[in-house]
Amino acid sequence: MTVPQPLHQALDRSNSDVVLIVDDVPDNLAVLHDALDESGYTVLVATSGSAALARAGQALPDIVLLDAMMPGMDGFEVARRLKAAPETAHIPIIFMTGLTETEHLVAALEAGGVDYVTKPIRPKEVLARMNVHMQGARQARQTRNALDAFGYASIAVRAADGRLLWQTPLARQLLLAYYGSSGPLAPAPVQAWLRRHLREAEQLVEPPRLTAELGARRLTFRLHQQLGQDEEGGDWLIVMREVSDDAVIGAMSLSFKLTAREAEVLYWVVKGKINRDIADIVGASPATVKKHLERVFDKLGVETRTAAAGMAMNRIRQLHPSFEG
Predict the structure, then answer these.
(1) CA 195 – CA 306 distance, rounded (Å)
(2) What mean pLDDT do residues 58-81 have?
(3) Could you state a single Gene Ontology molecular function term (predicted)?
(4) Does residue 324 fall inside a structural domain?
(5) Are residue 11 and residue 128 in the same domain, yes or no?
(6) How many structural domains comprise the chain?
């Protein structure tokens, strides 16, 4: 049985940007749909706020054209919800409104819009406004995709409240694995680390990196650059990289003829862990860890933890010079 791809993966973005138009008036949809389609865009439509949220979550469009005044959930609420969700927070929103009073235009921008056009809609004006915002969005998407392709996940975090403004697919997977959540806020340790080192970063001094551990895997966070400034610290691009020592454990198993579990126990001895800690990590009892360690001593021909760790470290450095014990 073939599992269907998520909509955002099935859409061909190599030659066409994806636009979501949200309007409850069919005539407005038709005019814009035809103009954008002729200009080479892939066009999706929604006629209500709830449909817009569902379609945006499925398709992850490159930009949203959003009617401000709709029955039920209006465009302002749709925008707030899109910006609150990490998966869609990065998508530029252009409001379409017949209301020109200052308070309505301010409300559109405060809800998360980057721009607005007034009704009746003039397709050429919409295309011109879209092009301005699409260039930045396109470059940002290409950068995020390139980082993921090379194993570097990335997130954007607002220093003031810790909100995740956007995250790459790889970043979402890693945050879920290490912290059990991928938003709407960055994990508490990441927020604390960012705020603690803001001053250094603002002075262009790279602060110490944050490291999280998950078994033999380590995830490092590095402050890359400031994306936007305000009085409360601005928005920051954080680059993440995961390193796994599974290869090191495998090498010890082969080198010393250890079982997989014995090699894992020896790995944690090299890392300086006591039996009780190792038991918690590998999901066994301290007594079981002790038995594994006794067999490791026998196979290595040593009598102490220190001797076993020293022998293992020498071999690891021969095979993996960059390993940090």
Answers:
(1) 39
(2) 91
(3) transcription cis-regulatory region binding
(4) no
(5) yes
(6) 3
Residue 168 has a pLDDT of 82
Same domain, 24 and 44: yes
Is 2 a domain residue? no
pLDDT (tens digit per residue) in 148-204: 666 678 888 888 888 888 888 888 889 999 998 877 889 999 999 998 887 776 666
pTM of the model: 0.52
**CATH code: domain of residue 185:** 3.30.450.20
Taking only the tens place, the pLDDT of each residue in 218-262 is: 899 998 877 766 566 778 889 988 877 787 888 888 888 999 899
